[in-house]
Amino acid sequence: MTYQFLGLDHVQLAAPAQVEEQARSFYSGILGMPEIKKPEKLISRGGVWFQCGIHQVHIGVQDNFVAAVKAHPAFQVERISELRSMLLQRGVEVRDDDARDGAERFYIDDPFGNRLEFIEWSSSYRKDPSI
């Protein structure tokens, strides 16, 4: 094989038009993801981008927008209980899920109805990709 997958560069989530400020308030203001400047050639398309660790989250404008309620990104975090508490304090609905052995995780919806997962793996649990 002459090519190799290195991982994900970014995840794009859709949103209705004219919601950039709402996206900034949520992704940067609540979640704490710094906004990153979009390339000049893409600014006219709308939307907003954020840094998430070594990856990026792109919020793109979509005509006839429908929220992603099943497909979703899963953000790996440290100190997930602190994130959960902060979200609850800010009035964000948190849906806990204990279906993965060795992981604590929960789901929330962004302001546009897109499902987001947050997961923290136990330090004693070696994540096995075959699971």
Description:
The chain has one domain (11-121): 2,3-Dihydroxybiphenyl 1,2-Dioxygenase, domain 1 (Roll), CATH 3.10.180. The chain has two helices and eight strands, in the order βαββββαβββ. It has helices at residues 20-30, 80-89, and strands spanning 10-15, 35-36, 48-52, 55-61, 74-76, 95-97, 103-109, 115-121. The strands form two sheets. A four-stranded mixed beta sheet has the order 1-4-3-2, covered by helices on one side. Strands 5-8-7-6 form a four-stranded mixed beta sheet, with no helix packed on it. A hairpin with a 5-residue loop joins strand 7 (103-109) and strand 8. It is globular. It comes from Paenibacillus mendelii. Residues 7-121 form the VOC domain. This is VOC family protein. InterPro entries: Glyas_Bleomycin-R_OHBP_Dase, Glyas_Fos-R_dOase_dom, VOC_core.
